Amino acid sequence: MNESGYSLHKIYIDKKSLHFPLAQRIIKNTGSIPKETIEDPHLLIEDLKTGKDPIGEGKKYLFLTEQKGDFVKPCPCTPQYIGCNYFVINSELNCPLDCSYCILQDYLSSPLITIHVNLEDLWKELDDFLQKRKGRPFRVGTGELGDSLALDHITESSKDFIRYFRRKKHAFFELKTKTTNINNILSQEPAQNIIVSWSLNTPKIVREQERGAPPVEERIGAAHQVAEKGFPVGFHFDPLIRYPGWKEDYKGVIERLLHGIDPARVAWISLGSLRFSPHFKSIIKERFPREKIFHDEFIKGKDGKYRYFRPLRLELYREILESIRKNGGEAVPFYFCMENKDVWQEVLGWVPRSEREVEDSLLPRGNIK
């Protein structure tokens, strides 16, 4: 499928990071896009923050620098809710897409799309990290603080990750995206421990809330190509959003998904409902003043985030689960993202005793051929 339709205005490069191979690759792949070497990114960031829409403006610029802290961290699961023992690789921060519900608008301190180019340090850190977990399967992935593939035609990072993780059989590595930017994926030989996943929603939500993202039908088409290539694929219905007609719309997406892709190729499906911090609503009011999806029946949870009232969440999850099973996905592993014990029990009929038990329900995945 085609490259991302995203276009950069300018690339800023931390002077100390200029020598890294990934920085040089990005410079080469971006051709005539203006570039500037800088010594102090804070001045640039502070200047952006004085603008009318620093979040939107920051998406026009790419910043190449070093990761000075740890690349690999536990997924920041909400306290008081069941996690899944997932680990994230923070190699890229921020995203060129502009989804109204995206928590990164409230989470990241810099509006710039940032790529950490010192991959050599990442591989060393991963070697140590994997050695400590040798013999026990676990999940790790990119795409938590950005989109794994939105800029892959520029970075080619997916090829680096695939080459590294195909040799690490006990690590199940996931690339998560909303895009159809899969050319580099299709150029690689598949491995059963490398999963390419898509965030999916209804056509209405994609059209009205996920600015810059391709239609859901195109994402499913991209997933079909990747599955046909031989990679396992995953899907994340998160956030599930209520509106008049949501039941029929989500059922239509699931029907297209599981009729177009062999369920045996699906590694997992995750479900999560719309949630946000109290401060997030003020960001939305400023950036998207006509937005209505946050005007519903929400309640403040134990973690301080607002979620739909539990009966509304239960209805969402039950409808989605029924549709998945009805369309041939009975054996597909799936889990909830940031949900409490009561929801697990009432929808699935069981409650994980720990994050590891959630992980064990997903790995190893005997349904993947």
How would you portray this structure in words?
- With 369 residues, the chain is of the alpha/beta class.
- It has a single domain (65-362), classed as pyruvate-formate lyase- activating enzyme.
- Helices cover 37% and strands 20% of the residues.
- The strands form four sheets. Strands 4-5-9-10-11-13-14-18 form an eight-stranded mixed sheet, sandwiched between helices. It has a five-stranded mixed sheet with strand order 2-1-3-8-6, with no helix packed on it. A three-stranded antiparallel sheet has the order 15-17-16.
- The longest helix is centred in the C-terminal third of the chain and has 17 residues, at 310-326.
- The radius of gyration is 20 Å and the shape is globular.
Quick gist of this model?
By secondary structure, the chain is an alpha/beta fold. It has helices at about 20-30, 40-50, 55-60, 105, 120-130, 150-155, 155-165, 185, 205-210, 215-230, 245-260, 280-285, 310-325, 340-350, 355-360, and strands at about 10-15, 35-40, 60-65, 70-75, 85-90, 90-95, 100, 115, 140, 170-175, 195-200, 210, 235-240, 265-275, 275, 300, 305-310, 335. The chain has one domain (about 65-360): pyruvate-formate lyase- activating enzyme (Alpha-Beta Horseshoe).
Outline, from the CA principal axes?
Answer: globular
Low-confidence spans? 365-369
> How many structural units, i.e. domains?
1
Count of extended strands: 18
User: How would you characterize the largest beta sheet?
Assistant: 8 strands, mixed
Number of helices: 15
Give average pLDDT, whole number: 94
Which CATH class?
Alpha Beta
Radius of gyration: 20 Å
From the N-terminal CA to the C-terminal CA, the straight-line distance is 24 Å
CATH-defined topology: pyruvate-formate lyase- activating enzyme
Structural class: alpha/beta
Task: Tell me what the CATH architecture is.
Answer: Alpha-Beta Horseshoe
Strand order of the largest sheet: 4-5-9-10-11-13-14-18
